[in-house]
Amino acid sequence: MKHHAIIRIAAKFLIPPILLFALYVQFHGDFGPGGGFQAGVLFAVGFILYALMSGLSDAQHALPMSAVRICLASGVLIYAGVGVVCMVLGGRFLEYDVLAKDGHSGQHLGILLVELGVGITVFGVMVAVFYAFAGRSREADR
Amino acid sequence: MISLQLPILQVVIPLLGAPVCALFRSSRSAWALSVALAWLSFGVAVALFQQSWFGGYVSYEIGGWPPPWGIEYRIDILNSFVLLLVSGMAAVVVPFAGRSIEAELQDDRIPLFYAALLLCYTGLLGITVTGDAFNVFVFLEISSLSTYAMIALGRDRRALTASYQYLIMGTIGATFILIGIGLMYVMTGTLNMADLAERLQQVNNTRTIRVAFGFLTVGICLKLALFPLHLWLPNAYTFAPSAVTAFLASTATKVAVYMLLRFFFTVFGAEFSFATMNLDLILMPLALVAIFSMSLVALYQDNVKRMLAYSSVAQIGYMILGISFGSINGLTAGILHLFNHGLMKGALFLALGALVLRTGSTQIQDLAGVGRRMPWTMGAFVIGGLSLIGVPLTVGFISKWYLVAAAIEAGYWPIAGLILLTSLMAVVYIWRVVEVAYFGVPLAEAPLASEAPLSMLLPIWVLVIANLYLGINTSLTVGAATMAAGQLMAGW
User: Fold this and answer.
1) Which listed residue, of A133, B86, B157, B472, carries a Cα 20 to 30 Å from B75's Cα?
2) Count of beta carbons in the 10 Å neighbourhood of residue A59
3) Alpha-helix runs per DSSP H in B105-231
């Protein structure tokens, strides 16, 4: 793709708004349509676009597989961890009411954190799947 | 305080362990963490079993949302009996896996393997504890997806096709289950099992519910590998890593049988399933064909792992046969065999895993003379085999005894005869291995096998002793199975 100037520059322009939009979908998820799943996929699209444009090795330089693996695991840990914190604070698993002083803001905080965990894991999975497919032929050649 | 949280802890402990294992670089620490969590989780299961032993049920509302709106975990004697089996097998297989997996897998994949194993374990426990029909599907997917990954890790390249075959069949099964649950939801507007059971009474006569029943039957029977939907099982068991085969053979199909019981007896009700839908007319012939034909196929296998896999399909036939009688005694026999077969197949596959470690092969002829070199491992295999045959003083005898008694009670004399005949067939296929191992002369170029390491022998012998102890003192297993059968026939 290196010699397609128009595509490269258009992608360069697109990547920041895509990432920003992903964050909007993530954090606006409890007021409007959106949430962790959609935001995670969108955020991954930004990276996948970059990888398509400037090659897999550049993308893996920016976001190595070890970092993706941490994303994969930490999202699940955040989700289940919120549930366990609720239990430690005297509620049931994922009973957000106990997270803050009043039930309403507790629910708000809880769903925000849980969706963040979902977003991080979905992002990690999307990128990991892309890396696995894109890196396949090269590994076989080696 | 903690005792109130037990139902969720059962699922959350391995669930939290899986991502931590995925972060580990060292395979030893991933293994150590998995062992610790498996034992902790077994402790939780024992505590839950004690709570439900005296009747009644334990209910847990996830997120504090009361049922039927929120997800409810609901544990009675049947759940906790299955939990005891699943977590008990994990507590034995995970320590065994340490050496076995080290020898069979690439080093960098081992931490990810333990992550997949813990996720599969989470899924199986989740299916068993939940009282929510949709939650069953979610946990089914968690356990299935990680199972596909674990089977694909087998040394042989054919593990990939075996895993793919299971992926296609398993996905069809899961989709059918989802369609069944969806149709029930359309008619009743609820997903809570207890609530469903109540509301289905009013809409039982509709075609939608009958179609839902059909989809669920086929979907669940695919997952539990009832003949002729068992085609994925022999390859998956043969090519998966030894520890995975032992874990799956003693837990995954058992949890699927539990699902069958839960949906047909609790949700639809025994009356609807058997009197209206004539479930027995479908299950009984299929179970009989499974028992006879698969025992016959097992006789002709040259690969011990594949032989035991076909024998598993036959043994699932015994469980389904017991259930298909639709009587309390038949149901007791089915549930009892569910538990006992987990114990015997676990012991057999673990012993086989130790043989694979030392001889590097699962072909019968490569085991020549191994009985003298690995006396403890082969001894365990022989006792496990006796249990599979149904020799007195082993658990296999207990469940076959109850099954024959239930068949005679229902007036099916020929079926009782068939059970005895197929037990003789089990004698033949177990004897083929024993004969080669003890009386065969090893080939000159065969590697000199030495006794398996203690970390593998201990888990194997724990299961062997369980096979013997529970074959003599049956108050625990028969008591739980009888109580569970009574509860199932009465609804909740």
Assistant:
1) B472
2) 21
3) 110-129, 133-152, 158-188, 193-203, 207-224
Q: What is the pLDDT of residue A2?
A: 61
Residue A1 reports pLDDT greater than 60: no
pLDDT at A129: 93
pLDDT at B348: 94
HSE, side-chain direction, 13 A CA sphere, residue B492: 15
pLDDT of residue B462: 94
Of A69, A77, A92, nearest to B16 by CB-CB distance is A77
Residue in B317, B338, B353 with CA at minimum distance from that of residue B259: B338
pLDDT digits (tens, 9 = 90+) for B243-302: 999 999 999 999 999 999 999 999 998 888 888 888 889 999 999 999 999 999 999 999
Q: Are B113 and B150 contacting, i.e. CB atoms less than 8 angstroms apart? A: yes
Q: Which residues of B touch A69 (CB under 8 A)?
A: 22-23
Give SS3 for B70. coil
* Burial (0-12, 13-18, 19+ Cβ within 10 Å), B489: middle
Give chain B positions within 8 Å (CB) of A76: 15, 18-19
**Can you give the pLDDT at residue B445?**
65
> What is chain B's length?
492
Please check the confidence at residue A122 and state whether its pLDDT lies above 90.
yes
Contact B63 A77 (CB under 8 A): no
pLDDT (0 to 100) of residue B40: 94
Structural domain that includes position A32:
5-141
Chain A residues within an 8 Å CB radius of B15: 76, 80
Could you tell me the two tokens for A24?
């909007």
Its sign, for the CA torsion B190, B196, B198, B199, is positive
Residues of B whose CB is below 8 A from A96:
63
Alpha carbon distances (Å) from A126 to B23, B118, B226: 18, 22, 36
Looking at CA atoms only, how far is residue A90 from chain B in angstroms? Answer: 9
At residue B243, the pLDDT reads: 93
One-letter amino acid identity for B452?
A
The tokens for B453 are 């390491």
The rounded distance, in Å, linking the Cα atoms of B141 and B145 is: 6
Which 3 state secondary structure label does DSSP give B444?
coil
Identify the bridge partners of residue B303 per DSSP, sorted by sequence position: B363
B5/A contact by beta carbon, under 8 A: yes
How many domains does the structure of chain A reveal? 1
Is a pLDDT exceeding 80 seen at residue A138?
no
Residue listed under structure tokens 């099916």 = B412
Report chain A residues touching chain B, CB-CB < 8 A.
69-70, 72-74, 76-77, 80-81, 83-84, 87, 91-97
Is A80 within 8 Å of B64 when comparing Cβ atoms? no
- Nearest CA-CA partner of A128 in A66, A79, A78: A66
Per the listing, tokens 């963040």 go with A116
Residues of chain B short of pLDDT 70, as ranges, are 1, 444-448, 492
CB B296 within 8 A of CB B425: yes
CB B331 within 8 A of CB B260: no
With contacts defined as CB-CB under 8 Å, which chain B residues touch A103? none
Q: Answer yes or no: are the C-beta atoms of B196 and B190 closer than 8 Å.
A: yes
Kindly report whether the peptide bond that precedes residue B68 is cis, defined as omega within 30 degrees of 0: yes
Helix (H) or strand (E) holding B364: none
Token look-up 């994922």 returns A94
